[in-house]
Design a protein that fits this description.
Chain lengths: 192, 192, 192, 192
């Protein structure tokens, strides 16, 4: 079991987003990933969340869903680099890829390509009772859409935090705070 | 293995500080606690970091050091409540309690009672090569003292972040951000 | 001309919200209040924004709109305390009070009592070209509603920031950061 | 009188730092700049604080101190661009340039070139009773040095805040928070 991979260890590409270390740690822990059998990572991008989940919870089966072919290529390279064998890559639209699932424990939503509500609807159909949705939002619109979606349902308990990380960078004798962009981490648990 | 205890599950007392959930998670993961044999938790307070560490890393031996008798009492009650058997409570000044150790893997510094430099000096004597110091600071003075201490040494690699968590609180139909006080988490690894 | 009243100088009441000093300063400066003839302060509450505006821009006429009778009482006491003579208090629903205006330079929206969209619609009717809407949001829902409203229009240029202030509190020899809740400040300028 | 210049209006150069709009506004307002006769801007850099002060307080005399010749050149170009006539540029080490002053109302410390304590000592000699020191810090070390300096004196009342501004950037239909680096703004008033 391992948690907390250095960001530098991932292969990266300029236009493909990557969830940063502290956000990965919090997202996966708050979603109870280590108890999960089936984890889907929607909008897997660089694959950092999938790979972190694969190492943190080696008995889970993780399905990394990503439609962008460049990102899929990068994702596969990262999977190889970290030698994890519990990730399956699905190159498809999230709404299509999710159709084949029957019982998801954790759905991680990193990217939604403008179709958040549709994705939430299909995740909801497939998510086990007691399962978790864990979503990272950088836009006010997607955060707001997800909050609205949850408020229309009575069978989810959710908790949302905004996380801002400032890293002290060493410049000569000085330590100077450098801001990461803030992220909203929303965790919703499905109730009976 | 478990990580991410709800804050509400700990028994608390008004004047005894408690490290909050997200800060506990990041502190323990960034310090590589799950690989550690011997962990000391200096200024253990409510015991939340010790107990979180005990569940996250069940094979570790955790020594919770706390001088305040009220905090020791509370700490013991929390240990009992969580039924963990890998925590030993040491009721003493940190500098005295640490004298008996020979090889520490992780030293967590939650509170230092105004004696940070002295504590760092003795931790340094006892820390294994490859071991971690993980400190949470709420004051500029202690953060600055620790950075100075590290800069005078060449055998530590450190990384420091400031973490600010805003929790969305549900008030009627609204979700309103409520700020936690920001914390600096400093992690230092001892090199050869 | 004066800007930057100490928070402690305002008379306050527990359930009536007050915009804090740094937020008042930024809100008023970013809205170009000092060039305005007619300013409306919607949901004036304690009156801190109205009074700050009255001192910052003594030639402006400020209309403080507030429906809650307790807040109106407090607001009037604060106006008297600061001896400003360019504030008129209107005790009414915002949407009604605004009907009598013809040419507003700056509309400050502190509180909207669940009727933000309706208030924006009527403000839009009354706002001069070149005039500013300046809104403070603590909820994701109101921020999101306002962003949606602006995106449906082409004649507004807007800029939004989230402001987080941590104040260093002196505790013994230490300076310890205490977080204020973060606020979104949105400023929109009406174009031709 | 004007306050709140757009950042884009300043001529800039890559390696010369510039204080951002919201930080300029808060720094100048919290230092009571509009009541000041004599203002010194130490480490003036791009000149954004000096020029903002010159427009905000047209009756003040502002002395922009900067030793770096490239920054001085840029500073002069910006002064010309904004057509302000109440700034005098002093190209020298701060400690030397300050020797000729007798009664300073506001000393703004933007940059200190590693000599903060020496600068504070000479500012203290020249500052009027009732005058303000206003300093912006990005490093923990300078913040800590300044706090220590203030704690050794009894004739200063100080207030320090950390300001974090996240600007919502429009990307397609979305508004996405982009973080500015956090800044500490410390304001100290000299008492009898």
């Amino acid at each position: 079991m391992f948690l907390g991979i250095d960001d530098e260890k991932f292969l990266r590409q300029e236009k493909i987003p990557m969830t940063k270390r502290e956000i990965r740690i919090l997202t996966l822990v708050l979603a109870n990933v280590n108890d999960a059998e089936i984890i889907v990572d929607i909008g897997a991008g660089t694959g950092s969340l999938s790979i972190e989940a694969a190492l943190f919870s080696p008995d889970s089966n993780i399905f990394a869903i990503e439609k962008n072919p460049d990102a899929v290529e990068l994702l596969k390279q990262n999977i190889q680099k970290f030698s994890v064998d519990n990730i399956t890559v699905l190159q498809d639209e999230a709404s299509k890829a999710l159709k084949n699932f029957s019982a998801i424990d954790v759905a991680i939503i990193g990217g939604s390509g403008g179709k958040l509500e549709k994705i939430l609807d299909i995740v909801d159909e497939k998510l086990k009772i007691g399962g978790h949705i864990s979503a990272n939002f950088i836009s006010i619109q997607n955060l707001s859409t997800c909050l609205d979606w949850l408020k229309r349902r009575e069978n989810y308990h959710y908790d949302a935090i905004q996380v801002q990380i400032n890293r002290l960078k060493k410049i000569g004798h000085y330590d100077i705070a450098q801001a990461n962009n803030p992220i909203y981490i929303l965790t919703a648990k499905k109730k009976e």
